[in-house]
Amino acid sequence: MGITDRFDLDGHGSDVRTEAIAGVTTFLAMAYIIVVNPAILSAAIQIDGFDEIQVFQMIAMATILASVVATVVMAFYANRPFGLAPGMGLNAFFAFTVVIALGIPWQTALAAVFVEGILFILLTAVGAREYIINLFPKPVKYAVGAGIGAFLLFIGLQEMQVIVGYEGTLVELGDVAATPGALLGVLGVLFTLILWARGVTGSIVIGILTTAAAGWVAAIAGLTAPENVVDDGLYFTFAEEGIAAGIVQLITTVQFDFTPLAGAFLDGLADIDPLTFTFVVFTFLFVDFFDTAGTLIGVSQFGDFLDEEGELPEMDKPLMADAVGTTVGAMLGTSTVTTYIESSTGVEEGGRTGLTALVVAACFLLAIPFIALVPLLPEYASFLALVVVGVMMFQGVVDIKWDHPAWAISATLTILVMPLAYSIADGLAAGIVAFPIIKAAMGENDDVHPGQWVLAVLIITYYVLQTGGFIL
């Protein structure tokens, strides 16, 4: 069976050239994750005997391979033109909330992702998607993307030192003009947003690389310090001996062996706190499930894949690709894998089948040799992607019924509590609890699903125990 027949290109009105171009386009739009995911997770993952750069490279390897596995499943099992990779927002929750804020070992966090992936596979296999989607309030579903976007925006601005800590008000605007890294980061964000607004394919990648190049020119000229993960010795190799010598040193020290990271989730399954572990798994499951479902519906609108009722036929198949990717990703050493909204760029280029996804997977594999060059990217260049993606994720708020009090309150709490509490889980909880209460107060209790009340009570109980000092 040839490629044309295997992916039914004729039936989808496509051809190999169109699918190839679409796949490359999607990869360029989402390739920033190879840099950003390690930048986020390395803040929480430390491995004895390995330095920061080596751990960074290990996570980059896990990121690429998890993306390849999930996208190949999407290609051959679901035959959809969607790319998958570790999700933005979920990796921030993994690193900054679960590991750093809650103090849970990163191995245990990986175990939670693994369990979530297994549960996702089971739920998808038994066709439980409809039930789960109907159980959560609609305003929360529509607000999750914007809430994660606000959280990413906040993290990115902090990492670039645009927003800094201040005792009186907790945070304030940093000395951007006097901080070279912050200034370059702001200019990089502006440049990237301009590219995105003009519809330039791969705008985030171009923005990262351009900002990094500007930073290195400034560093070599002595105008700034090497504000990145490269150690001083390597920096001076570049500055004093030239680019070629620096690249040689990078390649000879690259850490392609990521076995110290792979399989760490098994250690995390031992000696866990059941209640905390369950809540973390639930949060991963909820955010991943609905983020994926929303992305699939949104991207499918571009490709006219939806039926007359607005549903994606055989939606369980792409959801299964997501679930398998998450499970394998946890085994390899990365956070939850999800379908990327950037897949819409490839769909707009004409991608209609799994061949587009297969090309995306191939591009990820071809990126492996360049892992050695990842440490050349300054942190302010890497984290500008968080700010840009955070802005993009606010597009979903147009679906929220802001003139309905229950919707407005639930959605607003979901969006704002996430960055203010520095926790995606807390934002979700606030929105889920508020919805049935406000609906009942408006005399619309008949519109509230009984399961929503049960979930609200469970969440309230958890937070009473947590904030009362009985757990964690």
From TrEMBL:
Pfam families: Xan_ur_permease. Keywords: Cell membrane, Membrane, Transmembrane, Transmembrane helix, Transport. The keyword Phosphoprotein does not apply. One of its GO terms (molecular function) is purine nucleobase transmembrane transporter activity. It comes from the Archaea. It is a multi-pass membrane protein. It is found in: Cell membrane. The chain crosses the membrane at residues 21-47, 53-77, 84-104, 110-128, 140-157, 177-197, 204-223, 243-265, 277-299, 319-341, 353-374, 380-400, 412-438, 450-471. GO terms for cellular component: plasma membrane. Signal peptide: none annotated. Belongs to the nucleobase:cation symporter-2 (NCS2) (TC 2.A.40) family. Azg-like subfamily. This is Putative MFS transporter, AGZA family, xanthine/uracil permease. It comes from Halorubrum vacuolatum (Natronobacterium vacuolatum).
